[in-house]
């Protein structure tokens, strides 16, 4: 497969992943599916790892990858293959942006999972805290409902959505890393190694 066509496949894969990450981050603003005061939303949600890192910053490389197969730039000094090689080289820079954005989302998600959600920890519903900040709650599911009283199911909500963001971010990082290798091959060998620089 031509490097431009392969990059287009990567771009197509990145777009739905970005949308999923944005939606997950938006849902995290509603702990347990409930609307709460902004000061009671887990801190890491406001870092917007899914919206900024795996969302907005991932859209740019995805669009660049999608356009590589149909790149018809006239090249440098009239040499079309030179233009295609430069486009593949440019895609490496956008892939690096994608890795950075997804990496940011992964770090925020990992910290959030370890930190746990903010929730009500007393029966009167007045004290909000991070009861699982030492990260030992993952294997103790009974504490999810006995320690975190409100909002309902906030621990599973928090853990599920941040886990999705973590996994999606890792997949995005892998896809962008693959494009770095693909871009290098496209830059060195042309758009189609062994098939002529002008093929698409």
UniProtKB/TrEMBL annotation:
It is found in: Membrane. Keywords: Membrane, Transmembrane, Transmembrane helix. It is a multi-pass membrane protein. The chain crosses the membrane at residues 12-32, 44-66, 86-113, 159-178. GO terms for cellular component: membrane. Its main location: membrane. It comes from the Eukaryota. Belongs to the L6 tetraspanin family. This is Transmembrane 4 L6 family member 4. It comes from Zoarces viviparus (Viviparous eelpout). The lineage of its organism: Eukaryota, Metazoa, Chordata, Craniata, Vertebrata.
